[in-house]
Write a sequence for this structure.
C-alpha cells in the first residue's frame, strides 16, 4: 500500500523554502552594487574584493581557526576520556556527579556559562595572578569546556552501541586493559571521535556569546567581529562574508555527508560479506 | 638505571589501575575547575551586594554575612518580572511553532524514498551547522523596511486590508514578533532532528494494521503515530525551549528594549551596569526557571541511553 502523502510533501517543500530563502536572498544581495544592502542596484563583486583586502577580517578569521583547532583537539581528547569513563567504568566514586558535570554544560544557557567563566577568570587573575589578560587562552579554555561535553555524548553513545564481546575476546586472549583500549576500542570508535572533533570545531568557530564574555582586547574572533558590525545594521560586505562562510560550510557538510554515507554502505556490505562467509 | 626502575614502576602502576584513574580524573578535574567552580561563584556572588571595590561586590560584615536584596528585587522590580515573563512566553511560542512546522517536516522525511531522505537530511543539518549569527543576520536583511520580502508582504497587506489601514512597510524589525520568528527559524533543526529519529524507528506495520482495520489516515495519525512520537516531541520541545528562554543574540539584534529577555538583562546588568551581584541573581533565577525542563531532559536522555544499551 503506497500513499502519495501530498500534504506532508508540501509541508517539506514549504519548510525547506523557509530554511533557504533567507540564506539565498543574502547570497544574492552580496552581489549587489548598491551600498544599501537590501535594495538591488545591479550586479557587482566589489564587496568580495573589499573583503579580501580587509586585514581585520582576515586576521579575525585566522584567530578563529586557530582557537577552533586547538580547542577542538583538546576537547576531543578530554571528551573521549569522559565518554570512555561513563560508558565502560560502571562504578567509581563520584560517578553521578561526574555524569551531571558532563550533561549540565550541554543545556546550560550560554549567557550563564559565559558570565560565570568571565567571573572565574577575573577572580583568578586577581587572587592567583593568572590569567593576566583575557584573550586566546581564556577563549580556548571556555570553548574546550562547553564543546567537550558534545564529544562525550557522541563517544558515549557509540561505545554503548558497540559490541562489548570484542573487548572481552581481546581480554581473554591476554591483552592488558590498556592494550584493549588502544588496539580494539579506540579504532572502533574512531569515526565517533572524528565527528566529535568536527562538531567541537564547528561549535568553537561559530560561538558568539561565550567568546564575547571571555575574550579581551586584541583577540577578536570572526563571529565577534561580525557581531559588532551586525549590531549597526545590514551591510553588503557582511552579506559577502556570510555568503563565503555559508558556501564553505555547505561544501564541507556535503562532503562529510557523502563520506559518511559511503562508509555506512561499506560497513553494511562488510557485515553482509562476513555473515555470508560464516554460513 | 635509577630512571629505568622509576619508569617501569610508573608503567606498572599505569597498566594496573592507573590508566583508568587518569581517564576518569582528567576530564573530571577540568569540568570541576572550569564548569563547577564558576557555577559556585555565580551563586556566591548573587548573595553579595555591589560595591565600589575590585572585584565590584561585597558581603555583609556581620551575621548572616549575605544580602538577599537582589532576590527581593527580582519580585519587586518590574524590569525583572517582565523579562522573566517575556522569556517564558517567547520560548513557549517559539517551541509551539517549531513543533507545528517541524512535525509535518519530520514525518514527511520518513515518507520519502531512501535516496532522497539522506539528501534532505543534509539539507536540514546544513543550516544547523551554518553560523547561528549569520542565520539571524539573514533575517535582518529580509525584515528591513526596504527589502523585497517586506515590500512583498506590504503589497499583499495593502490589497487585502481596507484602505484606511494601508501601510508603507510592515514594522517587523525590533519587535517581539521578530524575536519569535527568528527563534523559530534558528531552532527548527533542533525540533526536526529528534522528531525524525523517533518517527523513523516507528514500525510502519502498525500504521498498515490500523489502515487494514478500517482507520482513516487522520485516525491513524491521531491514534497511532502521534502517541508513539511523544518522546520525540518532548526531546525536541526541550531542546528548543531551554536555549530559547536564555537567548541573548536574537533579542539583542532583532528585539526591542520594551520586551527584554532574561539573557539580555543578565548581559546588560553585567556589562553596562557593572552590577555583578544582580547579574548573578538574575542568572540564578534563570537557572531556577530552567531546572525543571533541564532535569526532565536529563531524565529522558538517561532513559534513551539505557534503551540504546539494552536494545
Amino acid at each position: 500500500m503506497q500513499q502519495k502523502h501530498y500534504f506532508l510533501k508540501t509541508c517539506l517543500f514549504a519548510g525547506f523554502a523557509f530554511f533557504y530563502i533567507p540564506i539565498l536572498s543574502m547570497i544574492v544581495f552580496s552581489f549587489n552594487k548598491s551600498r544599501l544592502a537590501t535594495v538591488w542596484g545591479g550586479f557587482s563583486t566589489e564587496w568580495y574584493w573589499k573583503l579580501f583586502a580587509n586585514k581585520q577580517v582576515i586576521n579575525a578569521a585566522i584567530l578563529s581557526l586557530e582557537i577552533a583547532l586547538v580547542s577542538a583537539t583538546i576537547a576531543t581528547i578530554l571528551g573521549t576520556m569522559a565518554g570512555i569513563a561513563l560508558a565502560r567504568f560502571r562504578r567509581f566514586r563520584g560517578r553521578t556527579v561526574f555524569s551531571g558535570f558532563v550533561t549540565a554544560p550541554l543545556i546550560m544557557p550560554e549567557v550563564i556559562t559565559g558570565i560565570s567563566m568571565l567571573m572565574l577568570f577575573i577572580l583568578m587573575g586577581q587572587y592567583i595572578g593568572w590569567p593576566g589578560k583575557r584573550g586566546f587562552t581564556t577563549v580556548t579554555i571556555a570553548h574546550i569546556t562547553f564543546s567537550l561535553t558534545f564529544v562525550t555524548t557522541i563517544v558515549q553513545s557509540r561505545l554503548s552501541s558497540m559490541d562489548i564481546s570484542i573487548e572481552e575476546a581481546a581480554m581473554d586472549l591476554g591483552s592488558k586493559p590498556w592494550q584493549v583500549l588502544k588496539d580494539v576500542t579506540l579504532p572502533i570508535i574512531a569515526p565517533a571521535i572524528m565527528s566529535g572533533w568536527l562538531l567541537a570545531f564547528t561549535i568553537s568557530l561559530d560561538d558568539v556569546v561565550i567568546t564575547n564574555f571571555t575574550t579581551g582586547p586584541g583577540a577578536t574572533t570572526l563571529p565577534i567581529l561580525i557581531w559588532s558590525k551586525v549590531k549597526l545594521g545590514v551591510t553588503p560586505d557582511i552579506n559577502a562574508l556570510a555568503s563565503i562562510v555559508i558556501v564553505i560550510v555547505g561544501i564541507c557538510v556535503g562532503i562529510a555527508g557523502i563520506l559518511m554515507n559511503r562508509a555506512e554502505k561499506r560497513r553494511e556490505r562488510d557485515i553482509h560479506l562476513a555473515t555470508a562467509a560464516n554460513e | 638505571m635509577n630512571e629505568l626502575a622509576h619508569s617501569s614502576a610508573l608503567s606498572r602502576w599505569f597498566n594496573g589501575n592507573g590508566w583508568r584513574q587518569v581517564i576518569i580524573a582528567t576530564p573530571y578535574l577540568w569540568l570541576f575547575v572550569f564548569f563547577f567552580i564558576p557555577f559556585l561563584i555565580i551563586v556566591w556572588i548573587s548573595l553579595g551586594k555591589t560595591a565600589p571595590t575590585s572585584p565590584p561586590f561585597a558581603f555583609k560584615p556581620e551575621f548572616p554575612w549575605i544580602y538577599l536584596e537582589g532576590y527581593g528585587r527580582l519580585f519587586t522590580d518590574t524590569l525583572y518580572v517582565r523579562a522573566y515573563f517575556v522569556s517564558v512566553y517567547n520560548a513557549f511560542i517559539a517551541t509551539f511553532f517549531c513543533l507545528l512546522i517541524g512535525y509535518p517536516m519530520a514525518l514527511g522525511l520518513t515518507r520519502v524514498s531512501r535516496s532522497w531522505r539522506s539528501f534532505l537530511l543534509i539539507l536540514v543539518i546544513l543550516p544547523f551547522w551554518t553560523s547561528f549569527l549569520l542565520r539571524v543576520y539573514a533575517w535582518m536583511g529580509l525584515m528591513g523596511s526596504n527589502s523585497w520580502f517586506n515590500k512583498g508582504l506590504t503589497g499583499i497587506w495593502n490589497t487585502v486590508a481596507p484602505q484606511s489601514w494601508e501601510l508603507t512597510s510592515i514594522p517587523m524589525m525590533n519587535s517581539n514578533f521578530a524575536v519569535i520568528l527568528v527563534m523559530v527559524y534558528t531552532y527548527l533543526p533542533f525540533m526536526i532532528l529528534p522528531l525524525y529519529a523517533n518517527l523513523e524507528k516507528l514500525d510502519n506495520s502498525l500504521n498498515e494494521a490500523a489502515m487494514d482495520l478500517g482507520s482513516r489516515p487522520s485516525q491513524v495519525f491521531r491514534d497511532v503515530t502521534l502517541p508513539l512520537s511523544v518522546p520525540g516531541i518532548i526531546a525536541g520541545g526541550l531542546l528548543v525551549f531551554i536555549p530559547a528562554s536564555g537567548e541573548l543574540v536574537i533579542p539583542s539584534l532583532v528585539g526591542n528594549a520594551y520586551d527584554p529577555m532574561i539573557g539580555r538583562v543578565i548581559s546588560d546588568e553585567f556589562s553596562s551596569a557593572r552590577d555583578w551581584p544582580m547579574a548573578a541573581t538574575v542568572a540564578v533565577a534563570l537557572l531556577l526557571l530552567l531546572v525543571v525542563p533541564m532535569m526532565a531532559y536529563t531524565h529522558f536522555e538517561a532513559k534513551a541511553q539505557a534503551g540504546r544499551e539494552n536494545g
